[in-house]
Amino acid sequence: MATADKPKYKVIGTRPVRHDGADKVTGRAKYGADIKLTGMLYGATLRSPHAHAKIKSIDTSKAEALAGVRAVVTSADLPEQGDRIVELGEGAANMRHLTANVLARGKVLYKGHAIAAVAADNIHIAEEAIKLIKVEYELLPPVLDVRKAMSAESPVLNDDIRTESVGSAPASKDSKPTNIAKHFLFEKGDIAAGFAKADVIVEREFDTSMVHQGYIEPHNATVFWNTDGKITVWLSTQGSFSVRQQTAELLKVAISNVKVVPTEIGGGFGGKISVYLPPVAAMLSKKSGRPVKLVMSRTSVFEATGPTPGSHMKVKLGATKDGKLVAGEAWIAFEAGAYTGSPIGPACMCVFACYDLPNGRVEGFDVCVNKPRTNAYRAPGSTHVAFATETLINEICEKIDIDPADFRIKNAAKEGVRRVDGPVYARVGMVETVEAIKNSEHYKAPLEGKHRGRGIASGFWFNCGLKSAASATVNPDGTVSLLEGSTDIGGSRTGIAMQLAEALGITAEEVTPTVGDTDSVGYCDVTGGSRVTFATGIAAIEAAKDIQRQLIARAAMIWDVDASKVSYSDGGLHGPAGKHLSFKEIAAKLHGTGGAVIGRGTSSEATQGGAFGTHCVDVEVDVDLGKVQILRYTAAQDCGTAIHPSYVEGQIQGGAVQGIGWALNEEYWYDEKGEMRNATYLDYRIPTCYDVPMIDTIIVEVPDPQHPYGVRGVGEVPICPPPAAIANAIYDAVGVRMHDLPMSPPKLLAEILKKES
């Protein structure tokens, strides 16, 4: 589905073989754990067995005395940070908290919290050595529930946290330490007057569990601290420049002394932005004088890296009997984990973002609990709130007897609508995604069979732009070498190369893209926020324009005419009297006309208008077991312009599958001591090929005017609708409304039995 006036492109919209494909399918691609250096040592980390405790003493003497051990570090080896807030590209971090998360200082705040690390000749010696480190603890009661953590009687995790207010009165300077790190408040219109106009009001409470991003590759880092003071880091990351800054800040060295070399990455989805290992490996390397590799175990990844937060939400919506939303109110509390930083801000921005809501109030809280510090996970915060809002939307539709798709179209956000949190939409495609589902074969098809149901839901992510840089060198054979700094997770190097190729009028195969290290390319923000194809694409297009300008000057020189008489189009140069040089022809003449042509481009001001998706799902419920089987699934999403349709389809399908897992099975399960009891993929249940059908995709193209080719980010929206769509389908199948995630067999069966009794 596309707009009628869609431009004609030669490269964009095609499906070339990805440039890194051969190395990926043959196993030659180098991932973080594949790095091997001469003289390299292997590291292991001692982690806390307790969720909340004071560290009274650490004795590393026996570990240091073990044969083969070359270095041992604790938090005492890292510089003191003080209270410093540093912007890291996709959010800011308190450096005092970040360093304490890397190696515990004074207290452990979750089971798995790193305490010390050892570097040894091999991993077996290192693992034996950490068992010899003696730690004396004073146990403290764990705080595991977000509502209890907000209570004034709850134990406080961090004595330096005071509530930071956004949109409301700031906390008093003499306020007491608290677990409530941030408080957000957004208001629009008159909420009381809005609800007074409503003919139907629905209000429900919702709970979601912590969920892991599910990347297959564990966190890793190999670091060499050279005698000249230069530090080189090899790792899998979503942002090499962010790692450079975090590492430099934590070690208190100049960023110019840190070079980050990104390897291929085996998934991230937001979970590989924060650093855990590079500063530790760096200190081990400095002490030992040799490169050190650290690789997390699967259990450590679950227990000690950032999942998405659990939440408690209260959401209320009001509508008139003719199907018009008039008011909405949301109260949202997120588990930040041990330290502040949950995506509560984005949640507050997204909760009512799909709709034209004239009166709204949104209140959000970032709350510390004795669990790992949370991180982004694909549209962080949006999936939580979409589950709540989209469930209520369908309940309203049932009460006033209106088709759920028609209701969404009638109330959809569109150009000129102001969100509750303030921004006004430019051209967006919410209506088009709902229309695509309504007009789909899936939505129109009859659904027959006992205990079968159909549900739909929509979702939103605002996307972002931030900063990117790229350079491109014209080779004598007419090919172009593209250097960019955005680590490639979903095929972005090819998507960026295609935009450069389109701008130059050459083929995608004639561009060789490379993801550079931090010393080789200009600053790029993280691969996150659905920004790379948009922003780094703009940087590549600007580099292509720079190349065009330089080639025009070269052609003018060759033809001995004024440059104003020369133009560039259709992959070649055009001059007076029918003069013409193809890209290959001019490239072959560069060495004789002034040398290399290198184009440079940046993007820093462009910001996306946001993206929407609407999903439709059919389910069958086994009422004896509470198990849900996905029968059919269709996802429609506005991607602005599909650069590489196969990648767009893959992103939509991947996000939908993750959302299905979040909806039905995935959760961090903690006992009363704060121990995660399912910290392996045997017990943490992600979907397999047996759990999902083929995800059908409908690509909607409503170009974003802020990008030369109309690109909108794709990767995050598709995870937002699945839980609500499935919850709505479950209700259609068995008449039970689910308000807790995951909707696992025990939970669903309990609700079915409750309804029957």
Write the layout of secondary structure elements.
Elements: H1 21-26, E1 41-47, E2 53-59, H2 61-65, E3 69-74, E4 85-87, E5 92-94, H3 95-102, E6 107-108, E7 114-120, H4 123-130, E8 134-139, H5 146-149, E9 164-166, E10 180-188, H6 191-196, E11 200-208, E12 220-225, E13 231-235, H7 240-251, E14 258-262, H8 278-288, E15 292-295, H9 298-304, E16 311-319, E17 325-337, H10 344-350, E18 360-368, H11 382-400, H12 404-411, H13 430-438, H14 441-444, E19 452-461, E20 468-474, E21 480-484, H15 492-504, E22 511-515, H16 532-559, E23 567-569, E24 572-574, E25 580-582, H17 583-588, E26 598-603, E27 611-622, E28 627-638, H18 645-664, E29 695-700, H19 722-734, H20 745-756
Parallel strand pairs: 1-15, 9-10, 13-14, 17-18, 21-22, 28-29
Antiparallel strand pairs: 1-7, 2-6, 2-8, 3-7, 4-5, 10-18, 11-16, 12-13, 12-15, 16-17, 19-27, 20-21, 20-26, 23-24, 24-25, 27-28
Question: How much helix, percentage-wise, in residues?
Answer: 25-40%
Average pLDDT across residues? 96
Distance between the termini: 47 Å
Q: What is the name of the CATH superfamily of one domain?
A: Aldehyde oxidase/xanthine dehydrogenase, molybdopterin binding domain
* Strands, total number: 29
Count of helical regions: 20
Radius of gyration: 27 Å
What does the main sheet amount to? 7 strands, mixed
Q: Which secondary-structure class do the elements indicate?
A: alpha+beta
Report the portion of residues in β strands: 15-25%
Low-pLDDT ranges: none
Which fold does the CATH topology of one domain refer to? Aldehyde Oxidoreductase, domain 4
Major sheet strand order: 3-7-1-15-12-13-14
CATH C-level category of one domain: Alpha Beta
Shape: globular
CATH-scheme architecture of one domain: 2-Layer Sandwich
